[in-house]
Amino acid sequence: MMKIPYIPQDAPFNGDQRAWLSGFLAGLHSRTAIGLETSVAAAAPKAAASVLNVLVGTQTGNAEALAMDIAAAARAQGMQPVVTALDDVSMDSLGSMKRVIVVTSTYGEGEMPDNAQLFWEALAAENAPRLDEMNFAVLALGDTGYDGFCQAGKLIDTRFEQLGGKRMKTRIDCDIDFEDAAATWIGETLPLARAIDGDSAAAAMSVVAEPPARAKQGWSRKNPYSAKVSVNRLLSGPASSKEIRHYEFDLGESGLDYEAGDALGVVPLNDPKLVGALLERFGAGTDSEVAGLDRPIGDALLNMFEISTPSRELVAEIGKRAGHEELSHTLANGDREQLSAFLWSKDILDLLDLGGKSVFDLAEFVTFLKPLQHRAYSISSSPLVAENGVHLTIASVRYRAEGRERGGVCSTYLADRVEAGQNAGVFVSPNKAFRVPQDNDAPMIMVGPGTGIAPFRAFLQERQARGAKGRNWLFFGDQHRQSDFIYENELGDMSRDGVLTRLDLAFSRDQAEKIYVQTRMQQNGKALYQWLEEGGYFYVCGDATRMAKDVDDALHRIVIDEAGISAEAASDYVNRLKREKRYLRDVY
Q1: Can you tell me the distance from the alpha carbon of 66 to that of 404, in angstroms, rounded to the nearest whole number?
Q2: The whole model's pTM is what?
Q3: What pLDDT, on the 0 to 100 scale, is given for residue 9?
Q4: Does residue 202 surpass a pLDDT of 70?
Q5: What are the pLDDT digits (tens) for 231-289?
Q6: Taking Cα atoms as reference points, which of 314, 307, 347, 309 lies closest to residue 331?
Q7: Bridge partners of 395?
Q8: Whether 442 contacts 532, CB under 8 Å
């Protein structure tokens, strides 16, 4: 009996190389198995015609990573994958594409990710091209905790069909635990893409070559590296209303590498106090066995499940069972804003208490819990400076409601339960769309209030280590200078050393009139516009709900005023910055 060739686990290949080789070997095996005599070399001219366009919309890097998985597997199966960010795709080029796989995440409440908004505006326009020659499939990423679950993928999928595209595979909508479902879908879709050439033999070959199981390659959220926390230091002052901490992780012998602009995923454990309160609510002990679980319930609630923020399914089920008039009325009306207001500050235990009695048994309750997820934080160090280490800048989320102390799942896990010298599970989430300019002479404008300063600390370290001559301008702010000016000494040193050319500060509550970073931008609009005209890059990091929108509005107003153009022309100007990858955001 013939054995399928394989690559040993300790072979010295990275994920992309291993994926390509796995598919290549599987392809060779399948050719032998079905009696094909055509050599790989002879098939090359045929493969050269098999271009597969993989179009990506990404906010945090997950969609981009999946796109690279698809490309590696497609390449192994004889196709020529071309991976392109959606905003880099012109409507003219889109109209000529024959086979397309779109991989896109959804940002916020159903919005397009940053690198797909311009594409969507052009695609949704009345003059969008016909796509009669296109065969397409859409892989959508999202989070069922949000109302606009996978909305970006749904919109693109529908619009492609409206324009005449032929769906070669039904769209898949992936939740936060997406790896296995996505891998299966990719394995089923690539043969269909390959078969569009009418090459049934090649299609048969590609069935065997499965896409790479990326989660098993190296360190990932399912296989995090246990890194020692070498520093856990409070940054904010004693009078601050916030608790901002600086963490340093020792990467040891992990082989983990990263670039300035990437994020670090941290895998938390739940608060033992909340675990205990839930167990008490159900009258269970930590060692109690529950049907369907492979471990005691105490371990499962601590390590496996999200037990703070309720899933939409859990909210709906409690609305049916608890007999709580306000919740039932809100759900019946379908008012999202009212529901959001009702759920504000409430955790799962609060919702369970609405019924006044047990509305579930424990085994049924856990079926409504989502998997415990990592939290991704913008890295605040450059690998050129933090040798074999990585730094994070995190605000600890704490509040009190209904007589109980509450906290952010991961931020308080790190702050309270991972002291210096202890370990936490981490992995790198690359963000290739948020990088220091390759041109060391290009000006760089950074807007990062509060913990939004994190990646810009890394950017400044990177430019200093490179010896870059480009000017650097930082807008930073928070509530009070005395207690909230984090990294003040470092920024002062960088200013004296000439690395930080300009530093504009906005401490909103140090005077009667509140001053924000966007205020400082407009006060310095002439110089800011001049930096952009001289090839400057404009970066924003921080709160997406208000700050990033206010900063975007301020940028548009500056362009209108300084260029003396209309609002429509200013939008075109800002959109050009986006297309040129000179307006980049890391917002959350």
Answers
A1: 41
A2: 0.86
A3: 39
A4: no
A5: 999 999 999 999 999 999 999 999 999 999 999 999 999 999 999 999 999 999 999 99
A6: 314
A7: 244
A8: no
Distance CA 523, CA 518 (A): 9
Instruction: Encode 495-532: b = buried (16+ Cβ within 10 Å), e = exposed.
Output: eeeebbeeebbbbbebeeeebbbbbbbeebbeebbebb
Buried b (16+ CB within 10 A) or exposed e, 339-362: beebbeebbbbebbebeeeebbeb
Token pair for 549: 């929108």
Q: Report d(CA 409, CA 308) in Å as an integer.
A: 7
How far is Cα 40 from Cα 28, in angstroms, rounded to an integer? 8
Instruction: Give percent of the chain above pLDDT 70.
Output: 88
- Which of 370, 52, 31, 3 has the alpha carbon at shortest distance from 186? 52
Structure tokens that stand for 260 in this block: 């300035």
pLDDT band at 396 (very low <50, low <70, confident <90, very high): very high
| Cβ(231)–Cβ(390) below 8 Å | no
Alpha helices in 128-285 (DSSP H): 151-162, 179-194, 200-208, 272-282
- Residue 297 makes CB contacts below 8 A (sequence gap 6+) with 279, 284, 286, 287, 288, 289, 290, 362, 366
69 touches 54 (CB < 8 A): no
Strands 444-447 and 537-542: parallel
Label residues 108-131 b or e (16+ Cβ within 10 Å = b).
Answer: bebbbbbbbbbbbebbeeeebbeb
Residue 102 phi/psi, 5-degree rounding, is -100, 130
Give tens-digit pLDDT for 487-539.
Answer: 999 999 999 999 999 999 999 999 999 999 999 999 999 999 999 999 999 99
For 59-81, the DSSP string reads: SSSHHHHHHHHHHHHHHHTT-EE
